[in-house]
Each structure stands twice: as C-alpha cells, then as structure tokens.
C-alpha cells in the first residue's frame, strides 16, 4: 500500500515534468538519460499508451472473434488447426510487421464421450468429465471417499480393490489463485495413488470454486509402471451429493469414459512482431496460449491472454515512435496438455536467450491486474522500478511473490528474464476448464485495464537502457 | 408499505393483549370472538408458531432427504415411483395422522439423448435440451433467427422450409417472475409457429435469466393437425454465440433428439393430514409438487414446496392445541408436464369444494415470501386480514395481484378459495428446469421464513370462524 502511494506520486511528477519529443529519428529522448532505466519521454509515452488502452476495443474484438469463430480449440483437434489459421490471419490483418509459425509436436489425447451415474436405490446421473490424459473404460463400483490427497496416498496397496477412489477435496477461493496448487495436486497425483491402492477408477471433486453442475477438466498423468484406470472429475454439487449419500450408506457409481491417447499431432506456435527501431534483434516477448480445453470456448483460458497481448502490441505500433526493441507476441500451442508450446519456443530460441529482454505471458483470465513481479535478475533494475511507477495509476503494486507464466517457464529455465502481471483470480476457478468459460464472462473494462498494463510494460521494457538479466544458463539448458 | 407498517403495529398490539388459553377441550379461545375472523388466542399461537418455525430444521431435512435420496424424479420415470414411496414413508415417519395416495394417470414422455452442434467453418458443440413433449429426430439446417415470438408467428407458410427456426428472445429478470410469461410463450407456441412456416426443427434461447451453459427444459405442445418437429432450448451463452455467428453469415446447426411419448403412466398424489379438532372434515390444503424435471434434483422446483408445507403442518401438530380444521398436505404428481396432479386432485375432491376452507401451493422456489394475496372471494374476510397481520413481522405485505399455485388452478376453477404466498423469484429462473436446481442453491434461512409463513397461514386459516368463500361452481365443474 505504501509502495503504491509512493509510485503514484512519482508517476504524476514525472508526467508533469517530462519534455515531449517524438522525432522518430532521434532515439535519445526515449533512451535512458542517466538513470539507466527509461527516459522521461518514454515514461510520458507510457502514460499516453495507458490512457489510450483504456479506450481501445481491439482486445475485445480479438477475443470475440476467436471464441466465436473458432470456439473450443483443444490441442490436436480439427479446431486446433483452425485456430492457427485464424491467428495467422488475425495478426496479419491487424498489421503486425512479421508473422510466422513454429511447429509444436505432442501426443494427442481425444475425448469421445463420458458419463456417470449413481446406481441402485438412489439412481441418478452425475455430471462428470474425463481428466485430460485419462484412459477410457467402463467401471462400476462402490466409491470410497478421501477428504484429502494425503489420505488417499496413505491407502495401503490392495485396500481399494474393486472400488472407485473418490477424492472429496474442495479447493479454496483466493485472489491470487493459490488454492489451485493443493486442488490440482489431487488431479495430477490422485489417479496414480488410487491405482496403487488397487482402485478400478478415480473420481474427484472438481478443482473449482463454483457451485454449478460443471465438472472441471484438466490434465492428469499416471506414474510409470502403473496400469492406467479411468479418471474423472464431478461437479461440486455432484460431489456434495455423493458425500451426503455416503453418510447414508454405500454408494455405487458407474463411470463410462471413452477417451485416450491417439498418436501425435503437430500444431504451431504463432508469432508476430512489431519491429523495434533501434535494437530489432532484441525482443520483449508477450503472449498467451492459443489452445483451450474443449468444454468451453476458451475465453478466460486463454483467449483473453491472446487478446490482451495482441492489443497491447498493436497499441504500441500505433504510437508515433516505434519501440527501441522488437515486441514479439507469441500465441503458444498446447499449453493445456503439458506446456508444449512454451517448451518448443524455449528450445527453438535457446540460442537467443540473451536477446530476450524479458518475457511475460497472460494466462490467468481477464480479471484486473493488481500486482507485478519480476524474475530476481531484473527485480531491482531501474527499468523495473519505472515500469512499476507507470503501472501504479492502474492500481498495480510491486510484488515479490510470483513466477513466470506457464509457457514462459521453459524459457526462464534457459535464462530468460520474466515478469508476471498478476490478475485478480478470485472468480477464475468458477470458470476454469468448464463449459462456462465463454465470452460473456469477461468484463470488457477489466480487459482494457489488462491491455493498458501490458502496453505500458512492453513499451517500457522495450525502451529500457538496462537489462532484466537474461543470460543463458548452461546447466539448465542441458536438461 | 403503508399497509405493512399498519399491520405490524396491529400484530404487536394483539400479541400483547391476547389472553393465553390452550385447553385442548375448550375451543372458544381459539375460535373467533366477535370479529368473525380468528381469536386473539389463535393469533397469539400464530406468533409462537412463527418464531418456532424460524428455528426449525425440518424443512431442510425433508428437502435434503428428497433431493439426495431420490434425486431427479421426472414424471413417469422409475424415480417417480421411488419419490412416491419416499413421500409416503416420510409423511408417516414424521407423524402425520393419516397418509394416503390417489392415482394420477398421464401420458409418459421420455428423454433418451440430446445433442447439437454448429457445423461447418465454426464447428463447435451447443448445449441443448429437448423441450418436454418434443418429438425426436435428427435435423441439420440453417438457422433463421427471430427476435420475438410475434416475428416467428408472422413468418409466412413455406418461408422456413428446410430451415431451423431460432427464437432468440431473452426473458427478463423480475422479483415476481413476471418475465416468465413472455418467455415461456416462446416455448409453448414457438414450435407450432415454426412448423407452420415450414421449419424442420425449432431451437430457442432458454427461458432463463442465468449465464451458464445450462439449457432450461420445460413443456411444449404442438397445435393439432401439425406434424411435430424436434424442439429444443440452448443455453443463454450458446444463444449469444449463435447470434454473434449469424452476424458473420449463415449458420448451420445439427440437432439430434431422441425423445418422445411412450404410453401412459399412473403416479400418485401423496396426501397427509393433521386432523382438526373441531371441524375435521373441513380442510386447509397446502402442498407442492413431488415430481421434478430430470436435469436437476428438483430442489427449488419443487422439493422446497414439499419441504416447506410438510414442515409447516408438522409444526402445527407439535403445538399444544390442534387446529380447528384439518391441515392437509398434498404432494402433487406430475405438475411439470401438464398440472396432472392438481387436475386429478380437483376431480377427485370436486364433491367437497365447500369443505375446502382454502388451498395454497408453494411452487416458486425457496426465496423469501414478501407478499400474500387471496382469491377475490376471501380477500376481504376478517381471517384474511388477520393472516396478513400475523405475517407482517416476516416482511410479508398484502397484495392484490396474484393467482393460485399451478396445482391449485383446477381446484380454484371448481370453486375452492386460494391464497398465494408470493416468494422472491429474482434468482428463480437462473436455476429453473436446469441441472443447477440442486440443494446447495437453497438458502436455509429463507426456507425457514417460508415455513413460518405457511405455518402461520395454515394455522390461522384452519382456526378462522369465517370462510374464504369456497363454493362449488356449477358452470366451471362442467368443463
């Protein structure tokens, strides 16, 4: 709070005192003058960008176009290819200087059908969805409830033979989404724990904070050496129902999943650039992931990220002076099933780690950004401080806790500096990985605030005279 | 507002001045003394009932039991029979004096499967549900949008040949639910209008106020002489999506419904009584409907009505003095598909119209009751005024607009007086006829307020010395 107020005053002072100079040939006013960060003129331009973004409809139009015309675009599906085509065409139509694709190959998982029901005296349907990566199969068995993953992991081998393990853990609603960690561990590790105890199938309360009949999908993986068993999530109200019925006696459930792995698929990272005027081979990388789960239309996850970063880059292009460095927007392929796009990008660009000024991915919906953090290497740079100052009028304060966006993790491991623009995720897990992830759930005003933040961030990072500390990590790149 | 404040003062004054007398043999203190309505002692007892209800958990337990153990209970299904068995057992276990069933026969409609998708360049699934009574069939065609039912009804014969009519009317959110009339007309009349214009199928925006991927089901009927075509509702976000796509060009939809009529079924109205001490053959009838749609577990529609009225009657039984007249709780069969239970009740009890002091059905969820109205015949009775007085502390004010609950309509047509305890339905159509109609959507405190209102109403109506004007209607009964 203290820091925020201080930054706000600083921003106002700078805006009032900064001399204006927009000679496209003269780079010095935009370059840093003495503070080794960002020039006063660039800071002034950031103010202009910020205000312009709050009245810019581009992100909404991009998001509407993607979620409407392409709709759900699960990795490896026919819609994945349509999304790539759409993204290339959209970048070109919007006037980016350069647009290209880079291949991303991954195993393809297919959901064909899924259903479940309580059988017996209280027969009734359950709303389920297969976890991504689940094996198919039809299983009927008594469910055995576990309140926590730890309890399930403590179940002795053979103790669940012929049974369906039911993990009844409800994730916590938090602004920073930190309830997702404990929740999603049940999704990633639960199936293997169930199989080790002998269970025929795995059923879990969705990793979600809502009270709708929407199961939340998301990936799981089976530990090596285990025979995969069907794994699915039930909606929160369905989990409540199972818990109530279990208080009355044994509960039999029939689970039928038709899904599984089906060869390989090659999708594309779609990349577009606004070329820098002074150091065009140095890049500020922003973006989101182009794939979505199949249940919704991928508005908050992650059409919003694509729309926000595309609109931010475009706003920068529309200013009278180009940024010093290149702004690169990356629409990553297949984040959902294993960060494949981010990994492919890191591998393809490993030779130019030092040329990456900084990277930031928007992949936590479209709630307002309230904090920013930088990788340790860049946190104390003059440019970081000036970015924090320029973001303060948007209600954004500096933070120390955080991490790179999912598709930036691999690049960060290679040594690329990162920033995280932290969004309010209070409602994110009401919608995440459900049919309800649709355009109407996005607040257009919050979306604009995101664009403003990314435009300011990218612009200032691209014009900074100092670096955020990107440097190849020999040990890491060998992994 | 003025009336409410006046009633509140009156209630307080009566409560303070009323002599207490609970001799089960002496009826005079409970009977009216001079005002031809309800005695001061009965009014005092109403205050006690009202307060007791606000701490009574019975309704919640009944509602939890029904929605959990029986779950969805669509008329004619296996679960319909389970619901009847459950209701009989529950009434008996709760200690009602008399429990019986009366047959209700109706045509049986069955939903087997339903799906829809946009096909072509923006291929994506749609969340649909067949309208009750719909014919099955698989249809692919271009959709033609109509903003209102009037526009669709004006479409010339042959103008929709080979097309799917799409009614894109969104119902309005209103406290009194009055947005449902215009909305549900599109459901009842839309399919016939579409067929008359030559359409191969009918698709409508759900009659609902939510923004979830839940289609709302509900009955439709085809006009005589028309060949039924598949008729379904899409969720609000899906309707938004169709509307957005239509702005971009033609939209092809594939609709596949497997459903239809399948013979007859005989269910039961389940009836229970708290026997009156003085005029046991005269009855105050309260209740709800036992059937639900199949998509949810029928918590707000209408498990709540069953729970509220059951708990209210039971609370009355638990008082030191029995009511003068009998309190009858009626769990009506198959309201959803044509008010069959209410019609059967009216027919079976047509000879005792005059013995029905008054009837009231709770069938608008579990939101707080904010108003009460009576049929014209009883609106100005002294008892009605005193009921209004006793309900005022619950925030309930007299109203003149209103009508009998759906299962009371047929009895009202036969001449039975009715009351309507009007619930706040602001959120009702977020859930109505969807998978989201589940227990967690019910506010336990609002449920208790409903029980309090029904207990006070039934108790005072049962003890009134005057009538609400029930009288056989020769002309009406001949219908």
Automatic annotation (TrEMBL), chains A, B:
<keyword id="KW-0865">Zymogen</keyword>
<keyword id="KW-0645">Protease</keyword>
<dbReference type="GO" id="GO:0005764">
    <property type="term" value="C:lysosome"/>
</dbReference>
<dbReference type="GO" id="GO:0004180">
    <property type="term" value="F:carboxypeptidase activity"/>
</dbReference>
<dbReference type="GO" id="GO:0046872">
    <property type="term" value="F:metal ion binding"/>
</dbReference>
<keyword id="KW-0378">Hydrolase</keyword>
<dbReference type="GO" id="GO:0005576">
    <property type="term" value="C:extracellular region"/>
</dbReference>
<keyword id="KW-0964">Secreted</keyword>
<dbReference type="InterPro" id="IPR039866">
    <property type="entry name" value="CPQ"/>
</dbReference>
<dbReference type="Pfam" id="PF04389">
    <property type="entry name" value="Peptidase_M28"/>
</dbReference>
<keyword id="KW-0333">Golgi apparatus</keyword>
<keyword id="KW-0482">Metalloprotease</keyword>
<dbReference type="GO" id="GO:0006508">
    <property type="term" value="P:proteolysis"/>
</dbReference>
<keyword id="KW-0732">Signal</keyword>
<dbReference type="GO" id="GO:0070573">
    <property type="term" value="F:metallodipeptidase activity"/>
</dbReference>
<keyword id="KW-0479">Metal-binding</keyword>
<keyword id="KW-0862">Zinc</keyword>
<feature type="signal peptide">
    <location>
        <begin position="1"/>
        <end position="26"/>
    </location>
</feature>
<keyword id="KW-0325">Glycoprotein</keyword>
<dbReference type="InterPro" id="IPR007484">
    <property type="entry name" value="Peptidase_M28"/>
</dbReference>
<keyword id="KW-0458">Lysosome</keyword>
<protein>
    <recommendedName>
        <fullName>Carboxypeptidase Q</fullName>
    </recommendedName>
</protein>
<feature type="domain" description="Peptidase M28">
    <location>
        <begin position="269"/>
        <end position="454"/>
    </location>
</feature>
<keyword id="KW-0256">Endoplasmic reticulum</keyword>
<keyword id="KW-0121">Carboxypeptidase</keyword>
<comment type="subunit">
    <text>Homodimer. The monomeric form is inactive while the homodimer is active.</text>
</comment>
